[in-house]
Each structure stands twice: as C-alpha cells, then as structure tokens.
Amino acid sequence: MNTRADISRGAGPGLSIGTVSTLTGLVALGVLIIAGNAADPMMAAHAWTFFFLTVLGLLITGLWAGSLNGRNPFDPAIYEDTIVKFGVAASMFWGIAGFLVGVIIALQLTFPNIFYFPDLGWTNFGRLRPLHTSAVIFAFGGNVLIATSFYVVQRTCRTRLAGGMWPWFVFWGYNLFIVVAGTGYLLGVTQSKEYAEPEWYADLWLTIVWVAYLLVFLGTLWKRKEPHIYVANWFYLSFIVTIAMLHIVNNLAIPVSLTGSKSYQLFAGVQDALTQWWYGHNAVGFFLTTGFLAIMYYFIPKQVNRPVYSYRLSIVHFWSLIFIYIWAGPHHLHYTALPQWAQTLGMVFSVMLWMPSWGGMINGVMTLSGAWDKLRTDPIVRMMIVALAFYGMSTFEGPLMSVRAVNALSHYTEWGIAHVHSGSMGWVGFISFGALYCVTPWLWKRKALYSKALVEWHFWLATLGILFYIVAMYVAGITEGLMWRAYNEFGFLEYAFIETVKAKHIMYMIRVAGGLLYLTGALLMAYNLVRTALGHGAAGEAAAPDAPKTATPALQPAE
Q: Which residues bind heme b 2; high-spin (predicted)?
C-alpha cells in the first residue's frame, strides 16, 4: 500500500466534506443543548452564536456540494488558491478593525472626559483593550499567517493543500473563534490572562481547529513533490506546533459548569504567573516571530528575485531561535514572588536571544545583495526591509529590557508599550503588508498592483505613524519611570501618581496622531488591494508570469 500516493490522490471529495460536515453538525447539536440550558446570559449568547454560524456553514456546504455534479473540487493538479484569497480579505478586514479599536482606546486614554460612556459598559477601556490586542495579533496576524502558510507550502512543495475540505474548516473555524472571543470581551467574558482572555469553551474550539491546521500542514509536506523542505516551512511548522503546546498548557482550566461561561485556572499564584508568561512571551516568540520570519524567508527572495543570502545561516537561525526563545518568559516577572534563579534564567536566555535574532535580520537584509536598487524603486521591498529593521531594533531592545537593572525603570511604564508597538506595527505589520501586496496580484493573476503610488503613500504614512507612536511612548515611559522613583529630601515620593499621568498627556495626543496615520495607510492598502483584485488601473487583465495555475508541471525547482 503506497500511503503517500493514497494521500496525494485522496479518497474522493465526499470523504473530507462528509467528515467536516459531521464534526460541524455534532458541534451544532452540542451548542444547541447548551443554549437551551445555559447557566448565564453570556454563555447563552455564545452558544446561539456558535449554533447559527455552524448551521449556516452546513447549509452553504450542502448547497455547494450539491452543485458539484460529479466534479472534484479538490483537483490535485490545481493549487488551492481560493482559500488564500479569502485569507487576504479576512486579514485586511480584521486589520482595519483592530487598528480602529486601537485609535479609539488611545483617544479614551487621552480624552477620557469625551470618550468615556458610563452607560455603555461594552465601550469601557477594560473591554476594548483586549479586543484591540486580539484583533491585531490573532485576527489580523493569525489570518495573515494561515493565508501565507497555505500559499507558501503549496508553492514550495509543488502540491495542493492536503485534506480536501479541512483547510476550509481551519479558515472558517479560526474566524469563528475570533468572533466568539471578540464578542466575549465586549460582553465581559474573560479569564483575565494576557493574550489568552477567551474562556474555556472558546479555547476548546480553537484547540480542535489548531489540530486540524497542523494535520493539513503536515499532510501537505508529506505528499510534497519537491524533495527538499524549504526553510520557511520549518518556521511555519515551529509556529503551529509550539502555539498548540502553549495554548493547551496555559489554558488548562476547570469550568464551573459545562453550561456556564466561567472557569477556574488549574494553576494558582506564582505558578500561574510563570505559566502565563511562559505562554505570553512565547506567543510573541512563535506567533509574532517565527511565523512572520517564514513570511520573510519566502516573500523577500521572491520579490527581489534573489536566493536567500545564506541558506546555512537560515538553518542555524531556526534551531538557535526556537531553542533559546522558549526559556525567556520569566523576564516578565522581575521583582515578583518568582524565585530569583528563575528570573535570572529568563534574563540570561533573553540576552542570548539577541544573536540568533540578528542573524535572521542580517540574512533577510543581505538577500538584497545585487538588488539594492529595489529599495529605491520597489516600495514593497522597502516596506519589508524596514520591517526587518524594526525586527532588529525590537530584538535588541527586548534583551536590554530583560536585564534586571533596566527592567526596574522600564517595567509597568509606557516604555513597554513603545517596545510592543515597535515590534507589532513595524515588524509584524510591515512584513504582513509586504506579503499581502506581493500575493494579491499573484493570486488574481494581475500584471501589477492597481497603484504603486498608493503603496508609497501607505509606506510613508505608516512609517511616520510608527515613529510618532513609539517616540512619544519612549518619552512618556522614561519620564514616568523616573518620576515614580524620585524622592524628596525627606525620603518621600516626589510625585503623586496623578502627576505622572498629567505629564504624559501631550505624548498621548501624539500617539493618537500616529495611530491615525497608521490606520489611514491601512485603508489605502485595502482600497489598493480591492482595485487590484478587480483588475483596475495598472493591474490590467494579463496573468502574472510567476503565478502558474497548475501544481503538476515537470519536476523543477519549487517556487
């Protein structure tokens, strides 16, 4: 029995459609029972949301399957590009939503007398702030990672996505999780863990979806026609596997009731804090770093039409990064009840992390060797190289802030906010924008983007927005930290807390301006991508030369 050939041929479209539909139907039945016996109104709202969306999915799947008339919708000779198109659209939708909420909460902090609505509890900062972080990290970033990983693994393996209907289950299932998590924040449903706020039932659903994602990715690698596994796929795989482990361990909880929204964490006290920041830091490390490094290792060489500067360095970069990153979490818990040896362990590994991080940055930048002119002529390349510059700055600053003496000044201040947004807006945002700008004309078979000038506008608006944001927050954070530790001649604190808040007001106003510039750039990008997909302007109607329609040409180097 040739297992690889069987996987490649598949067992017919009906099997994957049937298994996905069966699982979805069982979930719909289960949540209907919960909805009828919900212990609290929040669980009732989410159970009915699950029910209606899963039933809608079943109806659409049934109508679609009935229209096939014997046609195989999962033809192994054709790449599965439709799901990547949906991923591009979802990424831009959630990105704009997340950036908009970020601007709103920045306005709330700057002008609380105008943007605070006591009668509308769901608009409070405490509910909108996790909505912002989840929207930009998990909704925008997650959809970018899923879409690009599905695109890259097919091209580098020269085979269609494995699993038939299961990649679609991953895409829609993940976005259902985003909807449930986001509405939960507005309803006040949270387990109060940074980057892990959704309650037990949303976590359980995400686990099912994530296991399916892992199996689809592994199945595609298994049936590849290209013998070599390109380094980008190693980074994607590390992101998928490690996030699964982090998610499961950090969200171990005991529900109060199987029909209620509330649960209690399995861990408590300092053990819970250590588990949370082992998760939290590695969510940054493996969701926001290795996943987006995979994007860098595919799209920069592809866009500049040059090989990776050093493939050997990329392998060293991969293994050193994933080994060291996993130990760095305790640096979030300096000066706490965590034993000092554990704090020091996190600090040491954080400092070590500087070296592999910069190795990856150098590898990406030096890939432009022989094509440096593209920094001047191609704004997409410029955007991705600036992303690497922000990656380099953030991965130098992170180890610096992990040193206990520096952490004494920086922690709990706006310096941390500046650091996070330098990485998220500069590194994650720009490398994502670059990938979406690359992949859109390739997917829709267009000659070029609708408007190169709009990409230039986006680049400069977003770059200025980031600089306004982070410079303001660096000034605010250092000012705040110094005021907190200032003593008068009698040994008392020099400043009351409210004085430190007042001192930051002008910086908060500058942050709002930076956020508005960044949001404006994203809106221009969305407009540009829509017009590109429609074939307007420079996009024209001709097929892009580097976007072949089939996955089964004679064996040749993968794309």
A: 419
Give the pTM. Answer: 0.93
Whether 305 contacts 374, CB under 8 Å: no
Q: How far apart are alpha carbons 393 and 387 in whole angstroms?
A: 10
Radius of gyration in angstroms for the set of CA atoms belonging to the chain, rounded to a whole number: 24
The annotation places the binding site for Cu cation at 281, 331-332
Which residue type is seen at 11? Answer: A
Residues 6+ apart with CB under 8 A from 396: 354, 357, 358
Beta-bridge partners for 254: 264
**Alpha-carbon span 330 to 342, nearest angstrom:** 6
Q: How confident is the model at residue 552 (pLDDT cuts 50, 70, 90)?
A: very low
Could you read off the pLDDT of 421-432 as tens digits, one per residue?
999 999 999 999
**Residues tagged in the binding site annotation:** 132, 281, 331-332, 419, 421
Tell me the binding residues for heme b.
132, 419, 421
Confirm if 235 and 308 have CB atoms less than 8 A apart: no
CB 308 within 8 A of CB 228: no
Angle at 266 between CA 263 and CA 268, to 5 degrees: 105
Residue 119: count other Cβ atoms within 10 Å of its Cβ: 5
Residues 6+ apart with CB under 8 A from 548: 559
